[in-house]
Specification:
Number of strands: 12
Shape: elongated
Strand order of the largest sheet: 5-4-3-6-7
Order of helices and strands: HEEEHEEHEHEHHHHEEEHEHE
Structural class: alpha/beta
Largest sheet: 5 strands, parallel
């Protein structure tokens, strides 16, 4: 049953659809939402794109890099990118089929290329995030030019420019951090922390864990954080698995607390049973490991071998 449910989650997220899983815990229905990996398209493979690609991948984005220069659009330069496109910007944008859930950063090498990108983007579906690199004076002039060409002011005003949050960034790396921070701000807009809600906080699609549940036949147990309070290393919705060889996928925070719960989950494998445990982050064992968070996690452990 669980395997079929997670197979549906995998199919939906791979089709760029949001999926969800509802589980009953002591008479209460908890829902874990799975959002597909967001696509970040970097239009321009220059010096800012390199650190931005690395940071974005760390944040869970699937990064596509576009540049019309082979010396910039290549895998040695962007080893973490999921896709690299070496083509003229307008043609590449059309081929990528931008949708409403995409994030795009226009960070090309010049005003002319920025304008080519924006003309193509503004003629199609507006992405969730569209940022434009450049000084305030230069970007205002470009947006005014595009308005004179007939593009809607509403769409132009939706562009984040100058790109990134104002953190006083000066270096290339700092500018990349400011852009990444703005991506997170856009991603989390309207999302409540929901630590004690029946709608779990964490919504990231953990492909490694989901695919492991679906594709491998080895007996295993699932661990799901369904409630948190205080300071905890993860929020509700974090989940992981452990198999009969004590091999784990995913995490519910790491450290001694995770290790202790993993052992309990391991003993459930093959029993068809489930149990709920409360993990206190301020106990003596946690203190010895330097993990005194002062919070508490409630974790569902369940055998999913069948």
């Amino acid at each position: 049953m669980i395997k079929e449910q997670f197979a549906e989650i995998l199919n939906k997220t791979q089709s760029n659809q949001t999926a969800q899983w509802t589980v009953d815990i002591d008479g209460t229905a908890y829902t874990r939402i799975f959002r597909p990996k967001e696509r970040l398209i970097l239009l321009g493979g220059g010096h800012i794109a390199q650190p931005l690609c690395s940071i974005a991948v760390m944040l869970g984005f699937g990064v596509t890099v576009v540049d019309d220069r082979p010396s910039f659009a290549n895998h040695p330069r962007f080893p973490e990118a999921e896709q690299i496109v070496c083509d003229a910007f307008p043609h590449a944008i059309q081929a990528l089929e931008i949708h409403e859930g995409d994030y795009l950063a226009v960070i090309t090498r010049g005003h002319r290329y920025d304008a080519d990108c924006l003309r193509t983007l503004l003629s199609g579906t507006m992405p969730k995030y569209l940022g434009l690199l450049g000084s305030r004076r230069r970007t205002i002039a470009l947006l005014n030019l595009l308005e004179q060409e007939g593009f809607e002011r509403k769409k132009l005003d939706a562009i984040h420019t100058p790109i990134g949050l104002d953190i006083g960034a000066l270096s290339v790396q700092e500018i990349a951090v400011s852009i990444a921070a703005q991506l997170v701000q856009c991603r989390r807009q309207g999302v409540n922390r929901r630590s004690k809600s029946c709608i779990l906080t964490e919504e990231t699609f953990s492909q490694e864990v989901v695919a492991d549940i679906v594709e491998r036949e080895i007996p295993r147990a699932l661990l799901l954080v369904y409630e948190t309070s205080g300071s905890t290393p993860v929020k509700s919705g974090a989940f992981m698995t452990v198999d009969q060889n004590f091999q784990a996928k995913g995490t519910i925070g790491g450290g001694c607390s995770e290790s202790a719960v993993l052992r309990e989950a391991f003993h459930l494998i093959g029993t068809g049973e489930r149990q709920c445990v409360t993990v206190n982050m301020n106990n003596d064992v946690a203190a010895e490991e330097g993990m005194v968070c002062g919070g508490q996690m409630k974790v569902l452990l369940m055998d999913i071998s069948q």
